[in-house]
Amino acid sequence: MGLALTELTVSHFRSHKLARLALDGRPVALHGPNGAGKTNILEAVSLFSPGRGMRRASAAEMTRRPEALGWKLSGVLQAQGQSYEIETWSEGGAARQVRIDGKAASQIDLGKLARVVWLIPSMDRLWIEGAEGRRRFLDRIALSFDPTHAEASLTYEKSMRERNRLLKEQVRDAHWYAALEGQMAETGYRIHAARLAALDCLRAAQERAETAFPSADLELVQTEGAMPETADDLREALAESRFRDLAAGRTLVGPHRSDVYGVFAAKGVPARDCSTGEQKALLVSLILSNARALAETVGAPPIVLLDEVAAHLDAGRRAALYDEICALGAQAWMTGTGPELFAELGDRAQTLVVTESDKGSVVTA
Q1: What is the pLDDT of residues 101-147, one digit of tens each?
Q2: How far apart are the first and last CA of the chain?
Q3: C-alpha distances in angstroms, 185 versus 92, 109, 199, 242, 327?
Q4: Among candidate residues 85, 49, 15, 67, the one with its CA nearest the CA of residue 333
Q5: Is residue 250 located within the same domain as residue 269?
Q6: Which of 24, 91, 96, 222 measures 20 to 30 Å from 176, CA to CA?
Q7: Structurally, how many domains does the chain consist of?
Q8: pTM of the model
Q9: Which DSSP string do the residues of 195-210 spell out, in sequence order?
């Protein structure tokens, strides 16, 4: 068994008052009516990796209502040939905490053990909406390779917010900016380098794959100008841009101005101009490429979360997706409204039924 959860307990999380799942490492197919709580289980699993989970919700938003007591997730994770007891929880809306084998741990520690990637319906408009969503998509991939990526991103964002405050207040004293720009330059360069490395890993995985899904040519571009190549260059660019930034009231250079340009490789058509089905297929392809690249670089595929993905694929593509997941050996968690959506998996997956009762969501085998 590679990377997998073999036990999961969900307590006072979203619609689930208490759910205990025993798992055997196979892919997991969850089916049930809309609103029953299937996606909430996937969100719980996404919190076994760094960050705010696949919905990017606050800790307070995840707590079960009306009790609002806080929530707790615990599980047994098989990783790197060992078993780890993982706990993560939040009380009173406070930032979530983590314990690994009974000892307090950081989210970076968690990220070194558990790689989790996902594809959810809100990402379907990735290619046609704003650059922020595409940056977030790429940053999640970069984080799967480098668990420290989120820390660099948070430090950069915090420093940039403070610099933007100075700009809006029309502060012109260079000394106020120097320390902030130094921190932004260091972390900004790390962010940019991690994104480029992630794209290189995806390209290599796509080139080696035999897959039924189309390849995407991805390029990291700047919405304005060029991204400085070193931390020192970025520091100089920030300093030189102060007068322009003062006029704009915000920082106009740096990795927060990056975008991901995607092309359907076989057709040479920009992803934004592809059909809805083609755009979805490109996203599936990238998630699978991310999983293959992780299998090569860290020795095991990640846990893969696919929310309602089967409903948007025809039977042939669905079967191809399941075959590729099983060939990877990934524990994929998939949701759908009915068991027929997982018929092609047969006994290669563990099936769970999620229903709604007057006491909340119920999960049964």
Answers
A1: 999 999 999 999 999 999 999 999 999 999 999 999 999 999 999 99
A2: 21
A3: 36, 25, 21, 14, 42
A4: 49
A5: yes
A6: 222
A7: 2
A8: 0.94
A9: HHHHHHHHHHHHHH--
